[in-house]
Amino acid sequence: MTAAAPPDIDAAVVGAGIGGLATAHALRRAGREVQVFEAADSVGGRMRTLRRGGWTVDTGAEMIPSAGYPATWALIRELGFGAADVPRVSRALSVWRDGRARPNAGRPLGLLTGAGLSARARLELLRLLSGGGDEATGTLEEFAERLGPELRDGFLFPLAAGFFGWRPERSAAAPLLAHLRSTGSAAHWRTYRDGMDTLARRLAAGLDVATGRVVHEVAAVPGGARLTLDGTAVTARSAVLAVPAPLAGGLHPGAPQEERDFLAACSFAPMLRVSLELARRPAGAAGMRGFAVLIPAAEDDLVNVVTLDHNKHPDRAPAGRGLVSLVSTPRATASLIGAGDAEIAAALAERAERYLPGLRGLLGRVHVHRFPHGLPEAAPAALRARAAFRGRPARAIDYAGDWVELRPCSEGAVASAHVAASRVLADAAERCPAHGARPVPGKDNR
Q: What are φ and ψ of residue 173, in 5° steps?
């Protein structure tokens, strides 16, 4: 790329998940012309929603806590969402224990009513949630050795497995504890009324997004980056890889060493979720009246979470119908993810009969959602490699995604987008002041 041959694209973003779209949005607001390339046929990434015949089927289970998600809430307000667009999820979380769902898990009320935990375990949980976080070193399994077995096996491990797909022996404790402490009570969880892809669709509406476009390689070249896609090559002044770390490493094999080290350390947990359209809302087993029920491994080695999506928001299913999703345990996911849809659905639905008697007699369409790269594991090796990655100089090729922040949630992805956009602008300003544009709006870009 030379001055005589200007780049084909000003700024390219690879991936139209929430991280990529938020990055493109921030760059566009800063005055850059942005092209987003997405391999799938729709936007949203791991936050996609399927719509058909009055059903709104979320492929995941995204919640929006009222606290601990500042970047997400700032974006929601900027895009003009009203209170009705992000309604509260009533009775969001329960834990299955001793044959019934124990409500009020993750809420202050649960510390009074028990939420299935003894008084001793509740006090232990209170100390855990009020701690500073610096004491958490090593893996979640290593950290949990200091906890009682009731809190460890009945709440902390099921939570990590059910929502993040984590195996305690692989993932670090510090990111999970920081997430729990920052987000606070489950009583204030919210959702997107029109499906979990609502934010992605709203962002994409104001951007130039090309779906069904597969990028095969990204390489640094003089003056920017070269993207190889669909048998052709295009050049860009800047490029952001907003895909899971293992995919980003494969796309950019020539990345500098401190980037390759972090990318290699950012392993991902696979996730498997089955959504079941039902002829009517099922009569739940004891206590199953809320949205999500965590099931400890001691209770079930196959099903980790049961969600009543029609309780998440009534518009998820047609009137009188039901929508239930089942998340498999991490170990079951590893053995099932390569199986056929019918086998996966049959295995999980049969096991879920113990929580929702008569479930199989209500079955309509079944949706199997596979995520080989479900959520970043935030392994200790990634924590160690992160300092060098964060300290690297701004370059023409950068990254966005929840793995960049080692926080497996949409807030991690949105926060990473501001960082990526700021770095891209700083690099462009250094290489060519005329293209540096203004800083990312609403952020401290120092």
A: -75, -40
Domain of residue 165, CATH code:
1.10.3110
Residues 261 and 383 in one domain: yes
User: Per residue in 362-415, pLDDT tens?
Assistant: 999 999 999 999 999 999 999 999 999 999 999 999 999 999 999 999 999 999
Shared domain check, 257 and 218: yes
Question: Could you tell me if residue 84 is inside a domain?
Answer: no
Residue 168 sits in the same domain as residue 209: no
Q: Are residues 231 and 208 part of one domain?
A: yes
CA-CA distance, 77 to 414, in Å (whole number)?
Answer: 14
Q: Residue 442 corresponds to which tokens in the numbers above?
A: 């609403």
Kindly provide the residue ranges of all beta strands, DSSP E only, lying in 161-231, ordered along the sequence. Answer: 208-211, 215-221, 224-229
Both structure tokens of 184? 């606070």
CA distance linking residue 439 with residue 307, whole number of Å: 42
Rounded CA separation 140/131 (Å)? 15
- Which of 135, 162, 186 is at the close of a domain? 186
Separation between Cα atoms, residue 423 and residue 3, nearest integer Å = 22
Q: Which helix (H) or strand (E) holds 199?
A: helix 198-204
The number of angstroms, rounded, from the C-alpha of 163 to the middle of its chain's C-alpha atoms is 9
Q: What is the CATH number of the domain that holds 398?
A: 3.50.50.60
Q: What is the pTM of this model?
A: 0.92
**Pair 181, 236 in one domain:** no
Q: Residue 247: which domain range?
A: 9-47+197-267+378-435
Q: What is the mean pLDDT of the chain?
A: 89
Amino acid at 127: R
Q: In the structure encoding, which two tokens stand for residue 253, read together?
A: 């094999």
97 three-state secondary structure: strand
Tell me whether residue 99 is exposed, middle or buried, using C-beta atoms within 10 angstroms of its C-beta: 0 to 12, 13 to 18, 19 or more: exposed
- Placement of tokens 């594991």 in the chain: 377
* Separation of alpha carbons 161 and 184, rounded Å: 19
CA distances from 92 to 158, 183, 337 (A): 15, 14, 27
The secondary structure element, H or E, covering residue 398 is strand 397-399
* Rounded Cα–Cα distance for residues 294 and 301 (Å): 12
**What distance in Å separates the CA atoms of residue 221 and residue 365, rounded to the nearest whole number?**
49
Q: At what angle do helices 380-390 and 257-265 cross, to 10 degrees?
A: 150
